[in-house]
Design a protein that fits this description.
This protein is mainly β and 387 residues long. It contains 4 helices and 23 strands. Bound molecules: beta-D-galactopyranose.
């Protein structure tokens, strides 16, 4: 590990720490690390000197504090299943993170949808101004069913760090057509014997074959994110239709359900791991292709409205290993409050054989001709946004 900008804090070393740091560090071992920069791809330690365990995560900023929610992974085979649940960390500078414990725990009850051993992925938390509640959504797969349930799940809390009360899981928007679906698309009949990946099959998928198939029971929801717009409306964006098409779906005013308003984005485009942000009135999306835990080239898209049309902008990554997103996969884009044009691309380097060893790749987003661009940096800090 580079020592340059990392200071080992011996007990007396707290004197070196910025105001507030020692306070959040109480009870930790005597040699906590104080970071003042990011080291993409390297093990990142919390203020207890334990590596941060919050994969596929997202960040909520409330009352000037950053809260990072992510999947707690464990070691070895099965470490991608929810043995612990969703963990939360807090920070006031984005470099140093305090473990706030498990925000939503997987449970022992075999009848619960979040029984230990299920899959709880890509959690995101948003705050509802009207209800004063913190609302968590995540991708849920039922225990022992692989990835076939393809559900979204919701939990709620009065406190940002939880514990969150699990509400339910379900498929999205049953009996509701996408806003842009034509009568012809609604009424089309599909040949169930079409062979996958033939031109006819691809055309049928693009025309909504899976939307029709899942109309009654609701649309599939796997990799997901949330986005709250300036007007307080929130959206749930998820990989659907067997991961072939992303859906953008509006949440109700309390953020606990769907309104039934939704669209398909880039039908048949095979996008997942969506991350959304807004800049200068434009909506940007960064996604990945679908190769499971293996990295692939990121994609980006822009739209003047959350409802599209979304225009593909290609791979935002540049330089060596850009074609594999620097061996990582998008999970969230954080707009740093109080800084102009400051957007952080957050991604995961998965380690499926030993998931606990997964790493975080956070990189600054720059804009070239209004397109997002991401370049590798071994080490960087928030001053890059001041240049
Ligand atoms: C990835 C996805 C991860 C996880 C994994 C399972 O494509 O982004 O969140 O679901 O597949 O194989």
């Amino acid at each position: 590990m580079r020592q340059g900008k990392i200071f080992l804090l011996l007990l007396f070393g707290c004197l070196l720490a910025p105001a507030g740091f020692c306070g959040t560090n109480q009870g930790s071992s005597s040699d906590s690390i104080l970071y003042s920069s990011f080291f993409p791809g390297e093990t990142w330690y919390d203020t207890d000197s334990v590596h941060i365990n919050a994969h596929g995560g997202g960040i909520l900023v409330t009352q000037g504090i950053f809260y990072w929610f992510g999947e707690h992974k464990t070691a070895g085979y099965g470490g991608n299943t929810a043995q612990v649940g969703i963990r939360c960390y807090s920070s006031n500078d984005l470099y140093n993170w305090k473990n706030e414990g498990v925000a939503l725990a997987s449970v022992d009850d075999p009848d619960s949808e979040i029984v230990r051993g299920c899959v709880m992925e890509r959690p995101k938390v948003i705050y509802n101004q009207k209800t004063g509640k913190f609302v968590m959504w995540f991708h849920l797969e039922l225990k022992g069913q692989g990835y076939s349930a393809a559900r979204t799940a919701v939990a709620v809390s009065d406190q940002v760090t939880g514990p969150y009360r699990y509400i339910r899981s379900f498929r999205v928007n049953p009996e509701r057509w996408p806003m842009d679906f034509t009568e012809e698309m609604k009424n089309a009949t599909d040949d169930p014997n079409l062979k996958s990946w033939t031109p006819e099959w691809v055309e049928a998928v693009n025309d909504g074959m899976f939307v029709r198939r899942d109309f009654k029971c609701g649309q599939m929801a796997r990799d997901m994110t949330l986005f709250v717009d300036d007007d307080g409306k929130a959206y749930h964006i998820h990989a659907s239709e067997e991961n072939l098409t992303l859906h953008v779906a509006e949440l109700t005013e309390d953020y606990l359900d769907f309104t039934g308003k939704w669209i398909r984005v880039m039908p048949g485009g095979h996008n997942e791991a969506p991350a959304i942000f807004k800049r200068n009135g434009l909506y940007y999306m960064i996604t990945s292709g679908c190769t499971g835990w293996r990295p692939n080239a990121a994609r980006s898209a822009v739209s003047g409205s959350i409802w599209g049309p979304w225009e593909p902008l290609g791979n935002p990554c540049r330089g060596e290993h850009a074609e594999l997103t620097f061996f990582a996969q998008s999970t969230f884009v954080l707009q740093v409050p109080g800084m102009k044009n400051a957007y952080i691309f957050m991604a995961d380097r998965w380690r499926p054989r030993n998931p606990i060893d997964g790493r975080y790749v956070w990189l600054p987003i720059t804009f070239e001709e209004e397109k997002p661009v991401i370049r590798w940096m071994d080490e960087w800090d928030l001053d890059v946004f001041k240049k």
